[in-house]
Amino acid sequence: MTAKNTSWDKELVFRAVLASFVKLDPRTLSRNPVMFVTFIGAVMVTAGILASLPEVSGFDLQIALWLWFTVLFANFAEAMAEGHGKARAESLRRARVEITARVLAEGRELREPASKLKKGDIVVCEAGDFIPGDGEVVEGIASVDESAITGESAPVIRESGGDRSAVTGGTRVLSDRIVVRVTAEPGKSFVDRMIAMIENASRQRTPNEIALSLVLSALTLIFLLAVGSLKLFADYSAAAAGQDLSGIVTVPVLVSLLVCLIPTTIGGLLSAIGIAGMDRLVQKNVVAKSGRAVEAAGDIDVLLLDKTGTITLGNRMASAFVPAGGVAERELAEAAQLASLSDETPEGRSIVVLAKTRFDLRARQLHPHEARFIPFSAGTQASGVELLDAERRPARKILKGSIAAIRAEAGAFPPELDAAQREIANSGGTPLAVLDGSRVLGLVHLKDIVKGGMRERFAQLRKMGIKTVMITGDNPLTAAAIAAEAGVDDFMAQATPESKLARIRAEQASGRLVAMTGDGTNDAPALAQADVAVTMNTGTQAAREAGNMVDLDSNPTKLIEIVETGKQLLMTRGSLTTFSMANDVSKYFAIIPALFGALYAAKGSGAGPLAALNVMRLHSPQSAILSAVIFNALIIVALIPLALRGVKYAAVDAQTLLRRNMVVYGLGGVAAPFLGIKLLDLLVVAAGLAR
Amino acid sequence: MNVYDTLQVLIYAAALAALARPLGNWLASALQNDSPLQARVFGPLERLIWRACGINPGVQMNWKTYSWALLAFNAAGFVLLFAQQLFQHRLPLNPNGDGPVGFWLAFNTAASFMTNTNWQAYAGETTMSYLTQMLGLAVHNFTSAATGIAVMAAMTRGLAGGKAAQLGNFWGDVTRTTTRVLLPLSLVLAFALVGQGVVQTFGPNVRVKTLEGAGQVIPLGPVASQEAIKQLGSNGGGFFNANSAHPLENPTPLSNFLEMLAILLLPAACVFAYGKMGAGARQARALFAVMFLVWAAGLAGALYSEYGSAAASGGTALMEGKETRFGVANSVLWAVSTTAASNGSVNAMQSSLSPAAGGIAMFNMMLGEVIFGGVGSGMYGMLLFVLLTVFLCGLMVGRTPEYLGKKVEKREMQMALTGILAPSAMLLLGAALSCAVPAALASLSAKGPHGFSELLYAWASAANNNGSAFAGLNANVPFYNIGLGLAMITARFMVIVPCLAIAGSMGAKQPSPPSAGTLPTDTATFGALLTGVIVIVGGLTFFPALTLGPLAEQLLMFKGGAF
Fold first, then answer.
1. Best label site of A29, A38, A172, B281, fewest CB within 10 Å?
2. Do B548 and A215 touch (CB under 8 A)?
């Protein structure tokens, strides 16, 4: 993952270190109750040390130091996570140079700063101009450099009408001239929102994050009570035993116990996990309008995927020639190739290529005096070529087109081809008929090509419990065949914007969460209805408004990655919470015997009954407590990379995933600190840091 | 432990497992009112009650109305019982001439019986008149049990119902639970107990001259009728001070077996009723398995500790404070069951258990009374832990948490945590306070860790509405009467109201159909997780306290030094 390579570069780390001190501001900390309690604890211990000056207990000092480190490490984690976003936002802001807009008003052209533009203004942009604001092309076509927001250097085409009419402020026109109607108020443009989004990721907490921090606060509260009451229980026990425990049951030690018990690991990393999750999306060139959408992406039950571009390659390809009775396949191929030589559509080119590969027929260059090209029109549903004789009179006419068109043109249609064309249609393909003069030579089988790897991908999604639905305008037979080939769970044939909307509503009514991609204006209602709606950056303004995520690469397949990112975010949260709680078991076994090991000891013996709980055989009470506190602080740092990267995600069913994460983070969480604390105890003693 | 002890434990477990399901189905039918047989037999009586009270049980309540009805019902019961105790000397059926109950003791007892705790700071035979026992305490044994089941029913409807689930009617639920389940069962058990020799009379205490020529008072009373519901409704408040260790409350091994079975019978049946009422049989089975296994583990630990301690202290069974009629195994089985369920009746003194066994009894209560728990209350308490587990572990499968298809969000967690933590907070605060207040420490009869166990046990018992006592602690002093009384009330309603709030908020949610990506909550994996969360949350909260009490004492014992 790219995050890993860049996340530790020196500049970022340096800035994060600075930020972790700035974040010591109690107002900032109070938003995170777990770390706030740690902070208060650190303040209390420090105050105790200051009050006892000039005498200083080295042990208390070390405790205070490590408590401060605990808070700082948590701040550092958050600052690291924010670092990427900040860098990205800054580069965006730098890109937003002050643009002068050329506003068209009453036929005249006025120059105005872009910040003064209002919604509805008409501006004109020519080659070299920056587009002053978000808007829709109302006239003209141009190639536009959008690298400032997408990072993609290849220019894109923007034209009036259709689904490629939206332009973004701050991008640059490379060629031609367009007239744009501004659709965003100043300060609310796409780039503005994107900057705000990336920068605010830390402040907008998502519903699940809020619920989780509530749980963490509640646990903190109960541990506060447990440790607070322990002081009084200890007093009772000391009095009952006639012993003096005041040397070990001190404020710094009780604070240490508290900080070790409250979930500092997840508390310290929680916001970093959320920010990093958003950041992973940004790195995939997806901008989510809210963190809520990212969370919802993990919950998706149904994916609506457009067939074209997502499941299949954009275009159909010729895959076979089916000659009529008494016609050689080669003859048909030759005619079809001739008819397609001037056809620049991908379908046409694929026929030329197929003829070449099947029969080694070289594509000839037709000169205008040899032939006349008959272009495709919606009316005739056919295209082709008219070969000319020496006097430039039509000699031979070859047409290729829909069955209906050729049938009408030819007057008669061979019955065996009728059967063949039905077969092609049933298998999901599109039959084209080839007509030479009045003779129907045969059919060309055009086929949708399913993208490589999609079948496996859908199988993975199925394992994750996500249903895939292919959306297509094709007839049901064709759709069924492609759906079967691609391995989707369901399909919607002859889909219209209305039927898509109805489908989404129906799925939602039965409690499912639906995700979809779209780009056209007519997709907007469905996008607005879907729980996760990813719009293509090339899409229309209306579509971009309706969705809650924008894919800057305009790659519809990315929806699957978005779902995975959402799941990974939630999993990371859950796993680290489990880990954090599981850690507590060992800390009790370090600190309780340290506190009460000598309690009820027989006269002359240093070890009381509870010394038996010192299962780690830690050296002394001081070394045990210190090791636990150090472990508690260091584990935050150790887990920062995991928090930023997210836990490993694999497409398996929930049960398997749960078992695996439970073993790694649950059982691992119980075992790891036993080892860690023991090791630290040895180090602390070796370094002479504790008695 | 000999072969008969082992056999008895196994027969007990088998009887429990065999009876819980059919009884659960019967309970579910009563709550759903979907059995023509039940309607024909019990309908007339119920209609009479409703007509007399002006109740329309068909009216659906939302969670707030349901809560208000429940609180009003309980408050009224509290006031009546309080007053009845204060004026029992002026009321009939007082053949032994008992005087008025002291003010704070009356408060404590009213709180205790209203909340299904049945903590007894009094000795029944010398304090309460027959009328108070029958019309006050026994009635509360029914109403508090019915209240618990009603809350469970409403919560089940909210969780397992579809979108806009209806929560039912509190009055309807309480009435049907009482008429169709509690009364018939109590009737059958009471007759069985009378058959075994449990007394049932309005006659006054008998004064006899013993063989040695000394005078002795043999207390009597309407015991059997109260004994049945005391055990069935997870109440536990004995007619006599010695509770079920008293030969007239629990005379024979058979009566002992029946009473023990009655402790866990209805709480276990509630689990299956939960399944039958919409959650599904598989969910119920998983929850039953969790409860059963934790109970069995506690039992095994307690038995091991009991026999192990006996070996450590010279090889003879530890019989001090235990009934010779029942022996060690039956005493431990009872002790573990009565603390796992929030029953609180005893047939031996908990204080006389080996320290670790006493610790297990305490830990059972500290877990929040969800290992079977009280009737109804065990199930709804368990559901709070289920929601917490779903929340903590559900995230690990990469979805926002959901239970029975419904999203578990901030509000549900807020409520679930309130319900889980309120009793723990009361326990810790109360015990800490007791350590600091000299008047509270004066009530202890032992010193050192055992004394600490006495006060810790008292607060664990009150704050989890169990009601059993460790014995040794003099609880009839204002500090404990007031403090434990408040703890009982807080712990009961700070769990009930959040549960009903969850019923309300979850009831309004649209369930989504399960898929391969959703966390299944009816599997062994989930059961293990749930067990882990219950034990770890309980353990982490109370480990320090338990180390200073039972654990220190047990370790001291193994070291050969009693304190």
1. B281
2. no
Written as six digits, the tokens of B478 are 């204002």
Residues of A in contact with B521 (CB under 8 A): none
Q: Which residue has the tokens 């040390």?
A: A49
* DSSP SS3 for A676: helix
Q: Containing H/E element for A174?
A: strand A172-175
**How high is the mean pLDDT of chain A?**
85
Chain A interface disruption, residue of B282, B309, B396, B454, most A CBs within 10 A: B396
Q: Which of A457-471, B81-95, B402-416 has the lowest mean pLDDT?
A: A457-471
In chain A, which residue's Cα lies nearest the Cα of B416?
A215
Locate B203 and state its tokens: 């006659």
CB neighbours of residue B140 within 10 Å: 28
Paired with A175 in beta bridges are A143
Dihedral pair phi/psi, residue B180, rounded to 5° = -95, -20
Partner-chain residue, chosen from B435, B512, B547, that has the shortest CB–CB distance to A512: B512
Least confident of B307-311, B431-435, B498-502: B307-311
Of B67, B70, B40, B375, nearest to B180 (Cα)? Answer: B40
Within a 13 Å sphere around the CA of B406, how many CA atoms are in the beta-carbon half? 26
Q: Which residue out of A205, A227, A233 would a mutagenesis test of the B interface target, given it has the greatest number of B Cβ atoms within 10 Å? A: A233
> Is residue B532 within 8 angstroms of chain A, CB to CB?
yes
Mean pLDDT of A564-579: 92
| Residue A253 structure tokens | 């030690």
| pLDDT beyond 80 at A366 | no
Interface TM-score (ipTM) > 0.90: yes
B552/A236 CB distance under 8 A:
no
Contact residues, chain B, for A223 at CB < 8 Å: 540-541
Distance from CA of A461 to the nearest CA of B (A): 9
Closest CA to B268 of B347, B363, B343, B188: B343
* CA distance linking residue A323 with residue A584, whole number of Å: 77
Sequence-distant (6+) residues with CB within 8 A of B438 are: none
Substitution target from A229, A561, A665 for chain B, most B beta carbons within 10 A: A229
Q: For A425-450, what is the mean pLDDT?
A: 85
Write down the domain spans for chain B.
15-279
Q: Please answer yes or no on whether A211 and B409 come within 8 Å at the CB atom.
A: yes
Is B517 in Cβ contact with A464 (below 8 Å)?
yes
Q: Write the burial class of residue B18 (CB in 10 Å: 0-12 exposed, 13-18 middle, 19+ buried).
A: exposed
3-state secondary structure of A341: coil
Contacts of B447 in chain A (CB under 8 A): 240
Sheet containing A382-388: order of strands: A312-323, A439-450, A430-436, A394-401, A382-388, A371-374
- What span, in angstroms and rounded, lies between the C-alpha atoms of A341 and A389? 18
Separation of first and last alpha carbons in chain A? 45
Give yes or no for a contact between B186 and B200, defined as CB atoms under 8 angstroms apart. Answer: no
> Residue B153: which of B130, B170, B136, B140 has the closest Cα?
B170
**B435/A235 Cβ within 8 A:** yes
Provide the annotated active-site residues of A: 306
Measure the CA–CA gap between A97 and A130, rounded to whole angstroms.
Answer: 9
> Between A207, A465, A582, which is nearest B516 by CB?
A465
Q: How confident is the model at residue A165 (pLDDT cuts 50, 70, 90)?
A: confident
Residue with tokens 């009887």: B15
Distance between CA atoms of A122 and A124, rounded to whole angstroms?
7
Count of beta carbons in the 10 Å neighbourhood of residue A617: 8
Cα–Cα distance between A291 and A207 in angstroms, integer? 9
What distance in Å separates the CA atoms of residue A365 and residue A347, rounded to the nearest whole number?
A: 18
How far is Cα A580 from Cα A459, in angstroms, rounded to an integer?
A: 34
User: Which of the four pLDDT bands, split at 50, 70 and 90, describes residue A96?
Assistant: low
